Amino acid sequence: STDMLMSSEKEEDSDVIPEDSSLLxxxxxxxxxxxxxxxIIVDRACRQETLTYEMESHATGKRPDNPxxxxxxxxxxxxxxxxxxxxFQKHKDHKPYQTVLVLGSQxxxxxxxxxxxxxxxxxxxxxxxxxxxxxEHISKDLYKSAFFYFEGIFYxxxxxxxxxxxxxxxxxxxxxxxxxxxxxxSAKMEDYVFNDLSxxxxxxxxxxHQGNCEHIIIITDIRLIHxxxxxxxxxxxxxxxxxxxxxxxxFVCKMYTARWxxxxxxxxxxxxxxxxxxxxxxxxxxxxxxxxxxxxxxxYVDPGIFN
Amino acid sequence: MSGVPxxxxxxxELLGAFQQADTVRFERFAELWRERxxxxxxxxxxxxxxxxxxxxxxxxxxxxYFFPPYSFQIRVGALxxxxxxxxxxxxxxxxxxxxxxxxxxxxxxxQLDLLDSQHYDAAYIFRRLRLARAFHFTAMPKLLTxxxxxxxxxxxxxxxxKDPSNRVNSLITNxxxxxxxxxxxxxxxxxxxxSADKSQPDKALSLIKDDFVVSLKDITLEHQEWQQNRMELLxxxxxxxxxxxxxxxxxxxxxxxSERANxxxxxxxxxxxxxxxxxxxxRHRQVQLESSESGSGCGKSPSRSKKASRRPQPARRGSSExxxxxxxxxxxxxxxxxxxxxxxxxSDE
Lengths: 307, 349
Prior knowledge:
The structure holds two protein chains of two kinds. Chain A has two domains: 47-63 and 74-242, no CATH class; 246-306, no CATH class. Chain A has six helices and eleven strands. Chain A has helices at residues 24-38, 47-57, 108-114, 139-142, 168-176, 277-284; strands at residues 76-83, 97-103, 146-150, 153-156, 185-188, 204-209, 213-224, 238-241, 260-263, 273-275, 296-299. An eight-stranded mixed sheet of chain A has the order 5-4-3-6-7-1-2-8. In chain A, strand 6 (204-209) and strand 7 form a beta hairpin. Chain B folds into two domains: 7-145, no CATH class; 164-269. In chain B, 54% of the residues lie in helices and 2% in strands. Chain B has helices at residues 7-21, 26-36, 48-64, 72-88, 104-116, 120-131, 167-171, 174-194, 212-243, 246-254, 259-272, 314-335; strands spanning 97-100, 135-138. At the A-B interface, helix 1, helix 2 and strand 7 of A face helix 1, helix 2, helix 3, helix 4 and helix 6 of B.
């Protein structure tokens, strides 16, 4: 039989819903559109929507320059939702998350490296007396340990000598008394790829780093790779959806993102108070760089830094 | 996932018309499609992000009709529907049809059936979809989403689309009958062997009817015929009902006081009056329907839903409820058709 009997024969504008449609779906949709027209509701894509759409579709159809990077048929594609650790009260009903696409043949360590969490960038220490000497080392470099928990096995990152087995203490705890958990095991993250794991879809798993920063990971979909997907291996793990966090601005100028936070500050109206670098120095230090007033100052990294 | 309002009704209407036409030819389906100008279902000034979501949901709903327990004709109709929707969609690159791993053997069996019964147009359509790479091979049929559902939507199958659940047939299959035949023969032979006269079993040993396997087969065939007649009657009564006055129907329906009808009507009422989640920006628009089980979450949910799904207007609900009750009435009507009486002796009418 013939095909292409479906498409319209004459030129039709796909934005216009035909007047006399017998389809219920269209009648309902038309009512909604008409109501919007009546009430003069402006219907444009806000920048959030543009961002979401871009992220979702920016990598579709991409092919690598180097043919060895081409993904083969039969490769599995997993969709993971990685939730942010709870920071804000307003998120308690719907936890924000980012969605990452991962190949079955990729190692767990590759996923670990791709997760960007603000706690990795924290700089520890109080620097009110020496603001210029805020160290370069961020927490990511100092505390390299991390683990994934999938189906009863802790996969610890052991690539560097500084990495410790964070899961050891949990395993000891569960073995100390009969707490009803079947024996939990420990393994090395860098030895495993996703194809080796047995996973449940929709079941919450854990990613823990920095000792106490925990992210829940849920796998939402597993499917075979498709011709229309991005076939460049180097682009995976691919971020397709990300929650937009508003950055906190400086209290003084309300323009720049906050880089310092002060506590017990006699010069500031609230505790804690956020400042950008320029305003911070102008308020708290005189021309010679002497400290004015009493305060404690810490370098601040805003969670919205990854926007 | 919140559904697309009105989509299910449109699908059921199209598939119903296809079933009425009593054929599996693609030309017939294409005529029905063109009559309704179904390709316009994606029109309406929808932006890219929402269009992707909408198309995904549309294809997901359509593919549900492709699997058992729906009857063969409906499944072929669903295949044509998927083909039409896949080609009519406006998304670029095209959204794909998700098929779970566990469903593939079903589909392959279906394809073999099509080839055996020489429905080459349907097989060709399927092949074209495969060649166009229209399928995503997934582990799970439904893509997971994490919205707090106000109500778990019951997947309400249209009764008429389903194959009559032929429990008798699934028990007494051809294989079973064959095996029974073999065992019966063997049994007869054993009886002959142990009895005095080698060619015939002893009279004392005749404990069962000799030709019971044949009579069993006849009985199951009769049952199947009865069931088909019942389905025909159901369909015919629906056709006659639709031509009558709506008012008369309502009175007729209300006079049926069957308990089952009431229970079914209650379930349908519940499923049509579910609460909708309204996004923050549309908070001033109240929810149209009040539902008894919505509780405190009615109308002002704090979720950041990007798409405000609208439920059908009350007027529409009225008409579809009448339709629903009409179906209920038919169930009660058919209950008056009694089972054919099976006589003791194994002689047929």
